[in-house]
Design goal:
This protein has ten helices and eight strands. The protein is of the alpha+beta class. It folds into two domains: 8-218, Roll (ph1033 like fold), CATH 3.10.590; 225-248 and 256-292, no CATH class. The protein is elongated. The two termini are 31 Å apart. It binds a DNA duplex through residues 46-48, 89-90, 93, 147, 151, 184-186, 188, 216-217, 219, 240, 243, 245-249, 269-270, 272-274, 276-277, 280, 296-297.
DNA sequence: GCCAACGTTGGC
DNA sequence: GCCAACGTTGGC
């Protein structure tokens, strides 16, 4: 029904570090990906990421049903092995490869296998909770595009790129500043705007940032807290009675110190939690008929 | 249905 | 290795 004709772009994060879950190493780096060529992208256990995967369509399917042309183009985010000594960690993460969707979303069966690292008792075969797509490796980026570079660009107050990266133009800079990768890094599957895609692709093709100092040290100034502090002064916040925090963590002896910035940071947490909660709900409902959607009373 | 607490992720 | 951010769970 949506007669979209442009490809859709995504960024997916690989799992480059060894991590043993239930006795199995869950690592899946871009190297591994390149070796196998095509692979299911299993183990995504986040609603928002799952919903994004459900939007991805492989090329053939998109061509057959021309009303659905959500051809997925993927940028794969990885971490370079090795460089983590020498304090070079800041440039080890970034965009390492391109991929395409080989198979549209289908139930992630690893959630059903109690032996599997990604087992989730709440996912039933009759009613799968988690999905995966198959991805086909396309190519390495000619230049590894480090996250630190994107941050460098995003943190700059300038609208135009540094000289070395002139080719990005202001549109490229603006697009990078808006990337989820920069603004909310944790999401493991993200939408990428066409402009951001172009910018990343140009960076990957052209490079040119060798002379830039991408080290993160520059965070002398306070983040951007003041603005948010104002926003969080919400009527609701005033109503909150300052409930005593009960500490019932397993190690009840371990004493954290929450006091010092309680007054505003707590409010901020509240407002964040609320909004993310609202968002999660919306996303969860997204798969239901629109009529089911209801804003809260 | 709301919110505090928990656990995990990810940047540094 | 530490700590902030944040998604999810579970108690009410």
């Amino acid at each position: 029904m949506d007669g979209e004709t442009t490809p859709k772009y995504w960024l997916l994060k690989a799992e480059p570090d060894s991590r043993v879950v239930k006795g199995k190493d869950v690592k899946f780096s871009v190297d591994d990906f390149e070796t196998v060529g095509t692979s299911p992208w299993e183990g995504v256990r986040n609603f928002e990421a799952r919903n994004l995967m459900k939007e991805m369509q492989p090329k053939e399917k998109a061509q057959k049903h021309c009303s659905i042309t959500r051809i997925a183009r993927i940028q794969v985010y990885d971490r370079l092995a090795g460089a983590s000594d020498e304090g070079l960690t800041f440039c080890t993460q970034g965009i390492a490869a391109f991929a395409e969707v080989a198979k549209a979303a289908y139930p992630d069966h690893t959630a059903w296998d109690s032996e599997h690292p990604y087992f989730d008792a709440k996912s039933k075969q009759e009613d799968p909770k988690w999905f995966m797509v198959d991805l086909a490796f396309v190519s390495r980026t000619k230049h590894f595009v480090p996250l630190a570079l994107l941050r460098y660009i995003a943190d700059s107050s300038a609208d135009s790129p540094p000289e070395e990266l002139d080719y990005l133009g202001e549109a490229g800079v603006a697009a990078i500043k808006n990337m989820d990768l920069v603004t909310r890094g944790r999401l493991s599957i993200q939408r990428v705007s066409p402009d951001a895609w172009d910018a990343i692709e140009q960076l990957a093709d052209n490079g040119g940032w060798d002379e830039l100092d991408l080290s993160p040290k520059k965070k002398t100034t306070a983040k951007k807290a003041p603005a948010e502090r104002t926003i969080s002064a919400h009527p609701r916040a005033a109503k909150q009675k300052p409930k005593p925090r009960k500490k019932k963590a397993k190690g009840s002896d371990s004493e954290d110190d929450f006091d010092e910035d309680d007054e505003w940071s707590e409010e901020e947490v509240i407002s964040k939690t609320t909004s993310s909660r609202r968002k999660r709900k919306a996303e969860d409902y997204q798969e239901l008929p629109a009529t089911r959607r209801r804003t809260k009373a």
